[in-house]
Amino acid sequence: TQRTLVLLKPDAVRRHLIGEIIGRIERKAGWSVTALEMRTLDRAILEQHYAEHIGRPFYEPLVEFMSSGPVVAMVVEGERVIEGVRQLAGPTDPIAAAPGSIRGDYGTIVRENLIHASDSEESAIREMKIFFPGLS
Ligand code: GTP
Ligand code: MG
């Protein structure tokens, strides 16, 4: 069984989609939310989280957006949950995301794509340490 780090981005919170998105995740057979916190992220934590994107043209606006309001950070646990939550989310660009996916159903802007989910087991471990340092 796997664990993954999921963020409901500030647009999802502002648009009152927390319940909708968590509902989709929770309804998947056997998946559980095992840690959850609402908080506003600062530049320092975003620099860690998005370290791979520092220097890219979209990095500054991304940090600006991701610190523009509270996010919901959570750990989701279950069978193939790393691949699975990314599948539920859909591709990064919401216009390229199929209807039925979270980004496909609710997004239009690349930056404001509602949800983050770890992209590998290594990323999941790294990101869970950033957001939930107390977890074993
Ligand atoms: P995350 O789950 O948030 O990491 O999304 P991702 O894995 O689908 O995308 P990636 O890690 O490549 O990029 C991180 C975030 O930066 C994306 O979710 C977008 O919000 C934003 N982003 C990525 N690429 C672009 C881009 O080309 N233009 C813009 N404006 N934003 C981008
Ligand atoms: Mg990513």
UniProtKB/TrEMBL annotation:
<feature type="binding site">
    <location>
        <position position="92"/>
    </location>
    <ligand>
        <name>ATP</name>
    </ligand>
</feature>
<feature type="binding site">
    <location>
        <position position="9"/>
    </location>
    <ligand>
        <name>ATP</name>
    </ligand>
</feature>
<dbReference type="GO" id="GO:0006183">
    <property type="term" value="P:GTP biosynthetic process"/>
</dbReference>
<keyword id="KW-0963">Cytoplasm</keyword>
<keyword id="KW-0808">Transferase</keyword>
<dbReference type="InterPro" id="IPR036850">
    <property type="entry name" value="NDK-like_dom_sf"/>
</dbReference>
<keyword id="KW-0067">ATP-binding</keyword>
<dbReference type="InterPro" id="IPR034907">
    <property type="entry name" value="NDK-like_dom"/>
</dbReference>
<comment type="similarity">
    <text>Belongs to the NDK family.</text>
</comment>
<feature type="binding site">
    <location>
        <position position="86"/>
    </location>
    <ligand>
        <name>ATP</name>
    </ligand>
</feature>
<keyword id="KW-0460">Magnesium</keyword>
<dbReference type="GO" id="GO:0006241">
    <property type="term" value="P:CTP biosynthetic process"/>
</dbReference>
<dbReference type="InterPro" id="IPR001564">
    <property type="entry name" value="Nucleoside_diP_kinase"/>
</dbReference>
<keyword id="KW-0597">Phosphoprotein</keyword>
<protein>
    <recommendedName>
        <fullName>Nucleoside diphosphate kinase</fullName>
        <ecNumber>2.7.4.6</ecNumber>
    </recommendedName>
</protein>
<feature type="domain" description="Nucleoside diphosphate kinase-like">
    <location>
        <begin position="1"/>
        <end position="136"/>
    </location>
</feature>
<dbReference type="GO" id="GO:0005524">
    <property type="term" value="F:ATP binding"/>
</dbReference>
<dbReference type="GO" id="GO:0005737">
    <property type="term" value="C:cytoplasm"/>
</dbReference>
<dbReference type="Pfam" id="PF00334">
    <property type="entry name" value="NDK"/>
</dbReference>
<keyword id="KW-0418">Kinase</keyword>
<dbReference type="GO" id="GO:0004550">
    <property type="term" value="F:nucleoside diphosphate kinase activity"/>
</dbReference>
<feature type="binding site">
    <location>
        <position position="58"/>
    </location>
    <ligand>
        <name>ATP</name>
    </ligand>
</feature>
<dbReference type="GO" id="GO:0006228">
    <property type="term" value="P:UTP biosynthetic process"/>
</dbReference>
<dbReference type="GO" id="GO:0046872">
    <property type="term" value="F:metal ion binding"/>
</dbReference>
<feature type="active site" description="Pros-phosphohistidine intermediate">
    <location>
        <position position="116"/>
    </location>
</feature>
<comment type="subunit">
    <text>Homotetramer.</text>
</comment>
<comment type="function">
    <text>Major role in the synthesis of nucleoside triphosphates other than ATP. The ATP gamma phosphate is transferred to the NDP beta phosphate via a ping-pong mechanism, using a phosphorylated active-site intermediate.</text>
</comment>
<feature type="binding site">
    <location>
        <position position="103"/>
    </location>
    <ligand>
        <name>ATP</name>
    </ligand>
</feature>
<keyword id="KW-0546">Nucleotide metabolism</keyword>
<feature type="binding site">
    <location>
        <position position="113"/>
    </location>
    <ligand>
        <name>ATP</name>
    </ligand>
</feature>
<keyword id="KW-0479">Metal-binding</keyword>
<keyword id="KW-0547">Nucleotide-binding</keyword>
<dbReference type="InterPro" id="IPR023005">
    <property type="entry name" value="Nucleoside_diP_kinase_AS"/>
</dbReference>
